[in-house]
Design goal:
It contains ten helices and 24 strands. Helix 8 runs antiparallel to helix 10. It is α+β, with helices and mostly antiparallel strands. A hairpin with a 2-residue loop joins strand 8 and strand 9. The longest helix has 12 residues. The strands form six sheets. Strands 2, 3, 4, 6, 8, 9 and 11 form a seven-stranded antiparallel beta sheet that branches.
Length: 522
């Protein structure tokens, strides 16, 4: 619920906001909200926690605290107050629910545990043969119930946990309830997403869909209110079949305990979002570069996509993503102008003027992609090589400078088992995302061992022929080869590259002789 807390506190009277939370169907039930709980010690919100230095809850507690949750986890030696291999604990307090109805409780964990309400055992994972199933209890609003959870760690293993989950009474049609609220409101905000039960390290999601009926919830709310904002609290791309029906989509990326306040700051305009997607959001799972190769077979996975991962794949296959790598909107706009590319043979300086053309201060992430126009090996159409974030006031212009080095232009050659940088023409593409390129330009690079201003066999053929003395050297060594019918096709290639296709016509000795003659030119 936390993403909505900040919005609820900020909504005030100017805008009526419908709180339609797209909860996944949890493998584990949500924890009991802290504001339903009071300690039996001093009435503070939460539960009283007592640790014991044995597995039987005997003797005086070795440590006490007040906690705001009904889940505890330990892994290894994670608590300074207890021996993680020999302890037990008690959680106690009073439970007061906000509405009368049937509440569904579930107790899970690693170790022994039991849940009691008003002294009556409800779920017992402590006593062999006792009732261990989830339980549905009818509770009355405003009535205080004594809640008790007891836990004892297992004999072996590093993992230990206990969790009391609760599902409150459900509307007969909760989506219709959200639709009715949305229809009567100025703005509808749907917070949807995944939880750690569905997305975490160590296992894969089965597909890109939001679990449960969240897609249906979003579609129906958007149909009822044209000003619907979808907030996605997920850690990876999800399918958005409703994206064209909503006003905006905000990606949270699991922001943590202050996420609700951060979300409110963005939605109410106190902060101007300026983040960019670090991954491509495909329209469907089948568009993913690894779709044909993963999860493999016989326990092995072929990384068949090779270089073409992420945006490189979508560029090469000409597949339009849902949202491209580097994409992100804000409450202002930016213009790019006056691209300059300064190459001195050691570094390449890319300079571009960025202007805030809107009415709000904001940040823009300038992205520089590079394309090798005539690489000897297969290369992506473009690769991100530099980026910089600039924060500008309305109407302000700033020149952003980004640097490229030899490593920025290099690629790995398996035949040489080394990184190489070839001479030739490179295109610089500057933009807002991998799909939103604003400016482009080119520069010549002299390759490994080349010197600025000097001719050598690592340069494209047309560069040497543009120099009269260079042309003379080539005619002296190549003669009629320059008049070959296919010579025009090789103008963007270097002599070293051409030699790879025609070693009989251009043996290594001839290439070395030409390079020596070119190096002596002023």
């Amino acid at each position: 619920i936390s993403p909505l807390d900040g919005i609820r506190q900020r909504a005030g009277e100017q805008v009526t906001v419908s709180y339609a939370l797209g909860c996944p169907i949890h493998r584990q039930l949500p924890q009991i909200p802290a504001d339903w709980l009071q300690t039996g010690v001093d009435g503070r919100s939460g539960l009283a926690l007592s640790y014991f230095g044995n597995r039987e809850l005997t003797g005086a507690p070795v440590h006490t605290a007040v906690i705001q949750k009904t889940e505890l986890r330990w892994f290894g030696e994670s608590n300074p107050y207890i021996d993680p291999t020999n302890f037990s604990l008690r959680l106690s307090g009073r439970l007061t629910v906000p509405q009368s109805g049937d509440y569904y409780f579930e107790l899970t964990g690693i170790g022994r545990s039991r849940f009691l309400l008003d002294g009556q055992p409800q779920i017992d994972w402590w006593t062999p043969g006792a009732e261990q199933k989830p339980v549905t209890l009818h509770l009355n609003a405003g009535q205080a119930y004594d809640l008790l959870v007891e836990y004892s760690g297992p004999d072996a293993g590093k993992g230990r946990s206990v969790r009391l989950g609760c599902r409150p009474p459900q509307d007969a049609d909760p989506i219709q309830t959200a639709v009715d609220l949305a229809a009567a409101s100025d703005v509808a905000i749907v917070v949807a997403g995944l939880t750690r039960e569905w997305e975490s390290e160590g296992y894969d999601r089965p597909d890109m869909a939001l679990v449960g009926a969240q897609d249906e919830l979003i579609r129906r709310v958007a149909a009822a209110n044209p000003n619907t904002v979808v907030v996605l609290n997920v850690g990876s791309p999800v399918a958005m079949p409703w994206v064209d029906a909503v006003t905006a989509v905000l990606q949270l990326w699991y922001p943590g305990q202050e996420g609700g306040h951060a979300l409110a700051d963005v939605l109410f305009g106190d902060e101007n979002p300026s983040g960019r997607l670090p991954t491509t959001f495909p329209r469907r799972l089948a568009d993913n570069p690894a779709h044909l190769n993963y999860p493999g077979e016989n326990g092995k996975v072929l990384y068949g996509e090779g270089l073409f991962v992420g945006y490189r794949y979508y560029d090469k296959k000409e597949i339009a993503p849902l949202f491209p790598f580097g994409h992100g909107l804000s409450y202002t706009t930016f213009a790019y102008a006056n691209l300059q590319i300064l190459a001195d043979g050691e570094t390449v300086q890319v300079l571009v003027d960025v202007t805030n053309t809107g009415k709000r201060a904001g940040g823009e992430v300038v992205q520089v992609y590079v394309r090798d126009e005539a690489a000897r090996l297969v290369r992506p159409l473009k690769e991100l090589k530099a980026f910089a974030k600039v924060v500008l006031q309305p109407g302000e212009t700033q020149t952003v400078t980004l640097s490229l080095t030899r490593q920025s232009l290099a690629f790995y050659d398996p035949a040489k088992q080394d990184w190489v940088t070839e001479a030739g023409t490179f295109t610089v593409l500057v933009g807002h995302s991998a799909q939103d390129i604003r400016l482009s330009g080119q520069f010549e690079w002299y390759g490994d061992g080349g010197k600025p201003g000097r001719l050598h066999t690592g340069l494209p053929l047309h560069v040497i022929l543009e120099n009269a003395r260079g042309t003379a050297v080539l005619r002296e060594h190549l003669g009629d080869l320059l008049n070959h019918p296919q010579a025009d096709m090789a103008m963007s290639m270097s002599l070293e590259q051409i030699a790879g296709f025609a070693p009989d016509l251009l043996p290594a000795e001839k290439i070395a002789a030409i390079n020596q003659a070119l190096s002596q030119l002023d």
